Protein: Translation elongation factor P-lysyl-lysine 2,3-aminomutase
Amino acid sequence: METWRKAIADSITTPEELAELLDIDPEPLAPLVRRYPLRITRRYLGLIGKPGDAIWRQCVPDPCELDDDQLSDPLDEERLSPVPGVIHRYPDRVVWLVSNECAVYCRFCMRKRRVGCPLAGSNGRSGDDAVRYIAATPAIRDVILSGGDPLLLDDERLEAILARLRAIPHVEMIRIGTRTPVTLPERITARLCRMLKRYHPLYVNTHFNHPREITPEATKACARLADTGIPLGNQTVLLAGVNDEPAIMTLLMQRLLAIRVRPYYIHQMDLVRGTGHFRTKVTTGLDIIGALRGHTSGMATPYFVIDAAGGKGKIPLLPDAVERRGDTWLLRNYRGEIVEYQDR
Structure:
């Protein structure tokens, strides 16, 4: 059995196992885990420094998850699914949910309603339906593989998906969204990278939320992907008690660049049932972007976005006030100064 498969098999999946390792009461966890499955790799669990810290909050079930009455699918992904497993929100790109598993079931997951459950569109006949839909829709030039985590598929199954997409002339690029460099870095094997290299242009967006997640093992995993010629981006979720301070987010973005991962998005928490205790005010995100802009490299400054409810798409937010007077724009810079720009 491959090393990464052994790590998955050895993961913590029951309240009793977790309670024994963390010296907590398992009883309050039982109803949580029945509703929202539990999985934590031992490597990721080992990053916890103390109860309630940034790593703990991301992976240890919290009773607050059952107290939130938001919608389970506020982004209307089910409505925007023309065939099982495919989400078609924007004209030129689709998301294909090819996996129902993750190495760690993050407690803030936007797809809490589905994670760890049987997932349509990931294989067999429903997978054929997804490929047929993409092939029959010439406007689609960009396919994002998501889930779950696509890299929880074995190499052969993942390559079969990539090969079928590459055979479609109008699919110009493929993106893979994965958190395995953070939670299961041993998954990024030399064999996997050799296979991925055959399917360029290929992009990988990973998901670091805190500087402590950038371990030597995660750094090595990202280096392997980058050395394969795969551009790496990062999508961070703004999480209360995890990374909602400008100093923490600045350090995270700077360290990402140091391991050749370009910060791409900071997401305002989606209004997903079971995640309300992670939500911050929008002004928190604006303050963080304000602290980044001008005070660190522009490459370290991602977009701060809200994914609008009802499938209306991502909306970038900026902290600067902008006003137009004829051909003159009044712009506010990172110091809060008003700067005139003549639009000629």
